[in-house]
Prior knowledge:
The protein is an all-alpha fold. The chain has helices at residues 8-36, 40-68, 70-95, 99-122, 133-158, 163-184, 200-212, 216-235, 237-245, 249-273, 280-298, 303-331, 337-366, 368-388, 390-394, 397-401. It is built from 16 helices and no strands.
Amino acid sequence: xxxxxxxxxxxxxxxxxxxxxxxxxxxxxxxxxxxxxxxxxxxxxxxxxxxxxxxxxxxxxxxxxxxxxxxxxxxxxxxxxxxxxxxxxxxxxxxxxxxxxxxxxxxxxxxxxxxxxxxxxxxxxxxxxxxxxxxxxxxxxxxxxxxxxxxxxxxxxxxxxxxxxxxxxxxxxxxxxxxxxxxxxxxxxxxxxxxxxxxxxxxxxxxxxxxxxxxxxxxxxxxxxxxxxxxxxxxxxxxxxxxxxxxxxxxxxxxxxxxxxxxxxxxxxxxxxxxxxxxxxxxxxxxxxxxxxxxxxxxxxxxxxxxxxxxxxxxxxxxxxxxxxxxxxxxxxxxxxxxxxxxxxxxxxxxxxxxxxxxxxxxxxxxxxxxxxxxxxxxxxxxxxxxxxxxxxxxxxxxxxxx
Length: 403
């Protein structure tokens, strides 16, 4: 493992990420909680509408970032999110929180995220060398996890004090901090511009190259499996389980914070010590830890036990992603890095378009326990995919640097 050495500008961006993610995390919890009050189907619809635009527009978002650069895209998207949150605060004040407003907000957030996430995901690549990329990305992940750990319980508290309008205004403040930081910093590594990226041929070329790059299809498959098992179970399953089992909004926030806190602790280790050069072993171990946590959550009789189980889920997720994401970025051609990143985001979110509505139906019919147990079984499949791929078993950051 290699300890990272990064420029000051990178550290400033990481610090700003805390404020930005805190605002968006509180808002996300508040939207899901308010939506769950209208029933599981409305909650599932809001979460689905948050994801759908990223699935539909994500490839375009990656192509635009390859064309104009990650920093420019993040500046524009941060401005858009700031305006969206401000408008939400005004709309809630005028019209309260009807389901249609929640759904429109979710769709707009998803649309901006389709262009923001591919750029943000590859931004660390412009600051560090190959052998320290994993540790640098872990540092970003740790900052996000820190904010997200605080966000759910804070959201559960604030939704009862300042309502959704106040929560939206907090997100505006987080966007302001990020915008100022992005305007001030300059990455030391120049972005490789791809003038033809924003064309049908450019987008198709990114997909074709990803499909034929050894190791990449397996990484995309295992990420899709873990995301399909974990994201709906945590973001949708926890609020529904809380209402089903009589836990309060604050307790639900603590439970949701558990998986982020577990990830934070694990991410701090990787940010300090670096990630494993031979990444396939932690890639395969992570989903097994996730499955254990989801299985315990399925049978948790009290909210403290549920919080402990989600902490285990968070540890497993970060063990997995801290090694998958840098490996994926290092396998991507420099001129297609954002298009590759958009594919990674696509496979994380596309399964949710099917799974989220099914969860609403399944939970309404059988409760949350069977759904969470099924998610645990699905997560194990990702370990099988990783262990079965020869390229991943032989990949090291040293070999990537030698290309």
